[in-house]
Amino acid sequence: MGVSLKDVAQRAGVSVKTVSNVVNSYPHVTPQMRARVQKAIDELGYRPNLTARHLRKGRTGIIALAVPELGNPYFAELAGAVIDAAARHDYTVLVDHTAGRREREIHVSQGFSSHVIDGLILSPIHLETEDLTGRDETVPLVLLGEREYEAPYDHIAIDNVAAAREAVRHLLSLGHRRIAFLGSRTGHERQPAHMRLRGWREELVAAGIEPDEALVVVTDGYGRADGAAAMAALLDRGERPDAVFAYNDLIAIGAMRTLTERGLRIPEDVAVAGFDDIEDGRFCAVPLTTISPDKSAIARLAVDRLTARLTGQPPAEPRRERPGHRLVIRDSTAGRSR
Amino acid sequence: MGVSLKDVAQRAGVSVKTVSNVVNSYPHVTPQMRARVQKAIDELGYRPNLTARHLRKGRTGIIALAVPELGNPYFAELAGAVIDAAARHDYTVLVDHTAGRREREIHVSQGFSSHVIDGLILSPIHLETEDLTGRDETVPLVLLGEREYEAPYDHIAIDNVAAAREAVRHLLSLGHRRIAFLGSRTGHERQPAHMRLRGWREELVAAGIEPDEALVVVTDGYGRADGAAAMAALLDRGERPDAVFAYNDLIAIGAMRTLTERGLRIPEDVAVAGFDDIEDGRFCAVPLTTISPDKSAIARLAVDRLTARLTGQPPAEPRRERPGHRLVIRDSTAGRSR
DNA sequence: CTGAAAGCGCTTACAG
DNA sequence: CTGAAAGCGCTTACAG
């Protein structure tokens, strides 16, 4: 069907090797030879078959990125950053989303398209350490995000505990004492929200305040609707926090929705802080205070770790990289200080 | 490096063909033979090399989706829908974003990774019809979105003119007369905003109102910041619309930000309607009235058209598909009617 | 129902 | 500086 190297070689009256040399800009080809071959290439409209090249070279130039949900702006923004970072290394990115479902995460982690991807960046939600044993070790894996694993993989994540503490400290500094946490999860220690919840607890204790577990709300998911429902549930059971620290911005935005509907003012009645610094938060009616992870650093580090392993560097120890973050104070906690 | 079919065949003491038959669940294999081969597969940890299969079959099972910006929730949500729709056809999706830059769109449209993708779904911003001539016709292309092309490709887009007219009609029905349009573009007829702007004009004329071009604001981009700037520019030059129809929800959200900052109430002072129905709009302090395109229908139709061409069906005429849309009325135009 | 062989389109030692 | 040949790991007629 397509035009092959052989066709070009025939047309140019040279060997396949010579055409290959030209296509790959091999330096030692005489200019007139190059011109002759190029002419044949143009006339025939030849385009190299990358699949064949991949088979031959044993690599494809494709890395996969699997995130829980592309509809979550944090992951969409991160995916964009990964695509850009990968492009700088001449890699193409295959984006998949797992809906946070463990079986999809397992499938992906085990190299969902065997031999079509050179490496994988995975941001898990429900994946467990044991799911990671017995995976095909020929495909390097870089883990992203808050979950901790006892498995020998590079892991890129900001310091979630420290970041959460900063957010809570900020709320405390404004005089808030009844600070709710929205977006916890039931289940064991390694739940995604664990670190941020721990930061909430630690900072309260450090301030001499007993963490009130009645102010911790479990949500079903991580979306705006979950945040709205969580806030409503909290208010409905008679709790009246003076501040809310949400697992992420979406939950915070949902919570603000409920607060507004209930006639509570932000931040006068209830201050709200989130986590992720998605663009939505900057344009809310009341712009949202949040922890801003350095997304482009996360993307860059992830791609760098992957390409380092891909280019056969000495198989270094799995590394724990901690990209930066910062607290961004906006009206949802600070009043009209913008 | 990897374990190949041949290794498995050797171990099981059968021919390569037999192993291939087992791997591909070819029906006519005796159970005991299947068991024997499966045992060898398990022992060796064999995993088929998809690249080789792809080379052999001439297809890869990968389709590419190129959108302007993954950071725009509309495209992120659409990408998620395309990934899901493609999975139902056993296709994997390679997501790329073009930043709306024409040269990236050209690159992508010409099959950026030749022979690694079977087909392409492209949502262009600045691509021109002439950029589409001379592309490699072996890779089917489906176009998405508002731009019109005189090129023989399947094109999936809601009826943008009709949808825009519905939005404007809704605003008119509420008594608004000075309705601004935010998010126009300079340049020729085929600019992306053209159809929606045309809908705005047509509906005003139909209502016996002379479209006031002073109420049309050109923006640099399609983000929240552009909407905020556009609204500020409009107010700064002394125009005071009683309603705003924005090219998309992001621009509408940005505009609402500016209106709130200027102390104007929504919808009492200025009603606002957007386009896209992204989730953000549902959770704004003032939930946003918008045109809701049927994203999953768009995704499904796009993937269906592509797979139809991929599975060698009679090369039908390029089709123009019109998925549905509906007007979703929320507080930003309707007051407290939720 | 299974085997031996060709070939998808490349790249890469190996010669010359 | 260029050519002839092998081989990456599959699938698929073609035999039997």
From TrEMBL, chains A, B:
The keyword Transcription regulation applies. It comes from the Bacteria. Signal peptide: none annotated. Transmembrane segments: none annotated. Pfam families: LacI, Peripla_BP_3. Coiled coil: none annotated. Residues 309-338 are annotated as: Disordered. The keyword Transmembrane does not apply. Residues 3-57 form the HTH lacI-type domain. CDD domains: HTH_LacI (cd01392), PBP1_LacI_sugar_binding-like (cd06267). Keywords: DNA-binding, Transcription, Transcription regulation. PROSITE patterns: HTH_LACI_1, HTH_LACI_2. One of its GO terms (molecular function) is DNA binding. InterPro entries: HTH_LacI (IPR000843), LacI/GalR-like_sensor (IPR046335), Lambda_DNA-bd_dom_sf (IPR010982), Peripla_BP_I (IPR028082). Gene3D superfamilies: 3.40.50.2300, lambda repressor-like DNA-binding domains. PANTHER family: LACI-RELATED TRANSCRIPTIONAL REPRESSOR, LACTOSE OPERON REPRESSOR. This is LacI family DNA-binding transcriptional regulator. It comes from Kitasatospora paranensis.
